[in-house]
């Protein structure tokens, strides 16, 4: 396609316009296209085909928002928290005899509605938030990018205002290029620039009402983003998915004016989104390309990703991780082994109400004192190993007051997030050791039911006021309790028997990285079973059931899940007899402890 | 007619401007909106819609329209509105000679008008057309009716339009603004021809479009089209009074202006007093109570849960309601809306003339149909089973679906297939599932003229070991059934189940509050942990389960409430695990009177059976290691199942065929005879009249599954089999191994009773032999030893608890006293 005549990074809108003009000349007809892509996506996809090009794009978060420029390309990594439906916009219009497009931009560059011909296209609005419970290590440091970016614009931070002016100028030249009257646009730009500048100076501590809407789990520093998606089939992006969006960042100056002079006419019709989401708080991102994120994407350029191939490697890392976990758990080898299996679990199939592959763990015989030692250590360890972790204290007060399930607020027409609206693969720690006798009110009962339902079926009920909707969720749940938890009947219950308290182990970033990579890789491995072993398994299950009638289908199912996890923990894609016997042995040891 | 608007031509609507270069399409939005003006009352475009609405045109009040009638039909549409730009002058000039076209299209106004006239005047419903041709058409009749009751609209079924003139229908859907405006004019013409003095506007309200859009699929091409969609109201605004006509008064001379009509959402205040003598400048002020206002309401509609794809949140859309439609629904109502999809630009601020590039969309409502209301009207809720399932409450069966059901019902293995589809994730328990299926379909309730009535509902009790997925079955049925109520025995009280009288805190009146059983009238009441229910609560069920009513007599209220519910209960055996040595009654530990009211009692026992275990193991292994979905057998999905069941319940009412009746009699007699076995002289009651009723219900349900109007012989046979399977498990006398209804009815089988009598008499013998009156006491264990030694006529093993029971009997006779472990002869 030759060298691009524009800079995809700093002037994506220019690229869009350029390619639109190209497409027009090669016979693209906006009138009949319904806004279908004319090659922009391919263009950008080509440009960002490899990871290194993508890493050039700054990630939008609460710190980078202060220096990224509007109308440049940014990335946003987050979870789709709510879907705000479709939006119709004037996609293309005729300016004299040439078609212009508004795709990937907020404001019509053609301010008055006097154009003689206009096409209405649609785009999807997604409200995205940083993934709840996202751990520190997943965030890439944007410091170097920032420097690079500032270098790119040839300015530095102190000359802030000038940067804006320059930006405005460059935008102006663009608009002039497009044959438009640039003055109103320039004015808007200037306003926008000042607002974003002031935005950067004022720390975001103001108690805006929108703040209270945010889940308690996400920190106050989190930055939501309103993503506008084009040309994407509905089934492509689903609620609670963790996605990276790459697109044009805009601040919408119009909505700010709405704020200045609330227009009483628009009351009931306006989706209220502009009112709730002043663009200073919620930036808009016009998505060009997007991809779903796996844990691997959070491991920044780890060389292990490619190396982690041989079984030898798997075994080595497994051993070192096991050693670490055993140390954490006061040399309780069985608990550590079960914990590893638990960490590798994920739902890989659903048949009606049965979520196949879930493996929740309940460590019993923990009290407040031992919790403060082991619990805290474990929590920190998991934080450094897994991308998304959350812990929920199971106290009467918490259950009675917290809003665990997401709820639709029809007043604002938004889905109010609950603690249990989590991305797939989130790890939840439920601490029952602090539970005291008390009375649950109706909220408490509902919350307890939600938790139980999540544990048993891996589903969370979303409250839409007039009806409830169950959303499939994949969360790993680890429960600490004194006795066997009755509120939270976990798949595996094991009494915790530490023999000593080990000092906090220091791990190097490299090892941590290796372990993260190991966990992520193991989790994503596919798995199967040989014909002969299948027979062995069946025989063993029948034999187990013949000897112990109390074994239900759930217990058998759990054994198979454990076998699967055991096998993938060694990096193997098929179950071997050896691993199956290890599981049976582990199960025997666990049973022994229970009695 | 209207040959010029063949489908090919109608395509070049406003969306493809290229072809009709001469017609100034402007932008897509301004063009139709200028025509919108003809829709007089409906054209109340709210002021914030920046579309250049031309409301000035709506001064074509009825009288104006009437006066125009004599002229060329097209006049009302064009004479009273100035062309927005000089471009269309050419077209407008052709007023009288050439046909007038709807803007941007080649739809001739005259053609449309005459087509509508034809439709209104001549449309007759198919069934009435044959007998009398001279009767008035359907819509002429409704116009007369409207005139009589001084109504303001007539409802027009879009299906009728399509049947009469598909071309008109297509035009109407594609260009609703224009066509409806003409429709209104035609109506007014007809109305005034009937009654010259009729003053009110009569509007047309179209409903029942042939295609219904889903909210999710609305897209830009639907804009300005007539659409119909279903949804649930989630929020409605307060009623907004919208000014239509304003009256101004001069502050200087007190002169009242003529009513000024809203133009483009604005009222132009006269700059000067209009009175010739005054002409004072800037003196006019609005007189509120002489202005005319119209109601307006904005309502938000949300998708119903069944339309939401996996991993999505519901979409919403705004509705704009006017006049009579206001307050037609309240939040929570499910409605079907017919209206015009509109988009409006958003102005940046009130002071700005610039608009954003984003549009707000809404639906200008023409007609609202409440889903629940129509259903109530269509069926008598008391007699017809409106068992629309909860999962898809208002899925109306279209013909396609019906055909599919018919095909399904013809399949020879439909019974097996349905059973398979029921709770597919619950393993085995095929016969239990078949029984539950019968419960879902239900039998025919019978009301005799004599006042006696027989219930059609089938009650089922599941008793079984823990962990045999009873509760899961219950949950599943609960989810499936209409108005299912799920309660847990432990948490239910008698009044909670039936009905209770409460004092209204405000008025102090006593009011009746329904309990679970009353609430699940016409549904299935699922009671978990039946055994853990308090006795008083359980005793309330007696009446419900046979008479199907709940009678209340307290606090001055004497009432009998309907509770035509099937009861599905499940219980654990009394010792939590089934003890095969104890009798069923002892295991279930429920009063026999209640037990006999269950049509089917299933004992779900976890028998150590290698075969079942192996199948279970295979199933689970497959679940884990193969594609989970493929592990499932071919089965109906839950929505199909529910609508199949509800269709069958509603429409199929099978009767007993002679053959089946014969088989029923024969089988029943056999069942009664079965008690006499092996030349035994013992009289065992094997079946009671209750059983024959159960059998009839079951065979009716089985016939329903096949959509058969007749109960055939094999239905009866299957019913017998089901009963036998259930009974063999629940009424097996462990001593004799035969069916023994006595066991259910009294708790003790005949042979058991005999054995017990023998035991009592031998204990009596022993005590007479060994003990003196008032002599030393004897231990029960010693007595047991004695009995074993004694042997003789007791051929089975004797347990201590048998002895204790027998001793109890003797003690009640006053023959001996038992003190703890010892007995004494008196």
UniProtKB/TrEMBL annotation, chain A:
<protein>
    <recommendedName>
        <fullName>Mini-chromosome maintenance complex-binding protein</fullName>
    </recommendedName>
</protein>
<dbReference type="Pfam" id="PF09739">
    <property type="entry name" value="MCM_bind"/>
</dbReference>
<feature type="region of interest" description="Disordered">
    <location>
        <begin position="163"/>
        <end position="216"/>
    </location>
</feature>
<dbReference type="GO" id="GO:0005634">
    <property type="term" value="C:nucleus"/>
</dbReference>
<dbReference type="InterPro" id="IPR019140">
    <property type="entry name" value="MCM_complex-bd"/>
</dbReference>
<keyword id="KW-0539">Nucleus</keyword>
UniProtKB/TrEMBL annotation, chain B:
<dbReference type="GO" id="GO:0003678">
    <property type="term" value="F:DNA helicase activity"/>
</dbReference>
<keyword id="KW-0067">ATP-binding</keyword>
<dbReference type="GO" id="GO:0042555">
    <property type="term" value="C:MCM complex"/>
</dbReference>
<comment type="subunit">
    <text>Component of the MCM2-7 complex.</text>
</comment>
<dbReference type="GO" id="GO:0006260">
    <property type="term" value="P:DNA replication"/>
</dbReference>
<keyword id="KW-0547">Nucleotide-binding</keyword>
<dbReference type="InterPro" id="IPR027925">
    <property type="entry name" value="MCM_N"/>
</dbReference>
<dbReference type="Pfam" id="PF14551">
    <property type="entry name" value="MCM_N"/>
</dbReference>
<dbReference type="InterPro" id="IPR008047">
    <property type="entry name" value="MCM_4"/>
</dbReference>
<dbReference type="Pfam" id="PF17207">
    <property type="entry name" value="MCM_OB"/>
</dbReference>
<dbReference type="InterPro" id="IPR041562">
    <property type="entry name" value="MCM_lid"/>
</dbReference>
<dbReference type="Pfam" id="PF17855">
    <property type="entry name" value="MCM_lid"/>
</dbReference>
<keyword id="KW-0347">Helicase</keyword>
<dbReference type="Pfam" id="PF00493">
    <property type="entry name" value="MCM"/>
</dbReference>
<keyword id="KW-0238">DNA-binding</keyword>
<dbReference type="InterPro" id="IPR003593">
    <property type="entry name" value="AAA+_ATPase"/>
</dbReference>
<dbReference type="GO" id="GO:0000347">
    <property type="term" value="C:THO complex"/>
</dbReference>
<keyword id="KW-0539">Nucleus</keyword>
<feature type="compositionally biased region" description="Polar residues">
    <location>
        <begin position="1"/>
        <end position="29"/>
    </location>
</feature>
<dbReference type="InterPro" id="IPR033762">
    <property type="entry name" value="MCM_OB"/>
</dbReference>
<keyword id="KW-0378">Hydrolase</keyword>
<dbReference type="GO" id="GO:0005524">
    <property type="term" value="F:ATP binding"/>
</dbReference>
